[in-house]
Amino acid sequence: MINPQPATRNQQLNDMNIDIKIFRSAEESASSLADELAGLINKSGKDRHLAIALSGGSTPKLLFQALAERHQDSVDWRKVNLFWVDERCVPPDDSESNYGMTRDALLEKIALPPGNVHRIRGEEDPDSEAVRYSEVIERSVDRKNDLPFFDVVLLGLGDDGHTASIFPGNAYLFEASETCLVAVNPYSGQKRITITGRIINNAAMVIFLVSGKKKAEIVNKIMCGGEKTEYPAEYVKPVDGRTIWYLDEDAASLTGGQDIDC
To answer: What is the 3-state secondary structure (H, E, C) of the chain?
Structure first.
């Protein structure tokens, strides 16, 4: 990635179909995204089901809580099919389960038909479940570019630059032909199931929801370029879609703000 002059950086981001939205707090960011998603769902066609892949984590939890509080009754949830970007290999009632967190924060509070919820079964054998969940995705969503197509993929950003369950050193997961694979957290050794990079990059809209000063340096390096990093999040480049970054002021604190003054 070339380090551009400040005056041209925003144009380059625009040319790359990247939008940056900065808010005062993580809560404000999550509320704004909740409103955006609610509007997207309500604008979809009468017979069109939106395929949305969710991530776990504390910041997405704020989003799910905002959706439940602000849009419990204002959205026709029957028009949504929910999937998960990744899941830890734990049972759904485990405190580390991405599905379990979403269930408690959102699913139990909205009128989403159970058949529209497609969870990764973290309690099953990881290799077998990666195959099964690949088949679920492939038969449940539309196709584009001969790949499964999501309307929205929601991503977080780890302190090491990982996204989904694609950690540093596992960039091959962005080239894998499989829809889902087993990944291993290099720090804990915990197995996870993740959709692969080609599926992420085939989405119509990829949304990063990021908060906190710990993420500021990584966000700055991804936004402003310079030396090529080993951050997996840098490989998120939708083929035909847009990338939207929802940042709080802490996460955006090294970028120069809304103008991305690198």
So the answer is: CCCCCHHHHHHHHHHCCEEEEEECCHHHHHHHHHHHHHHHHHHCCCCCCEEEEECCCHHHHHHHHHHHHHHCCCCCHHHEEEEECEEECCCCCCCCCHHHHHHHHCHHHCCCCHHHECCCCCCCCHHHHHHHHHHHHHHHCCEECCEECCCEEEECCCCCCCECCECCCCHHHHCCCCCEEEEECCCCCCEEEEECHHHHCCCCEEEEEECCHHHHHHHHHHHHCCCCCCCHHHHCCCCCCEEEEEEECCCCCCCCHHHCCC
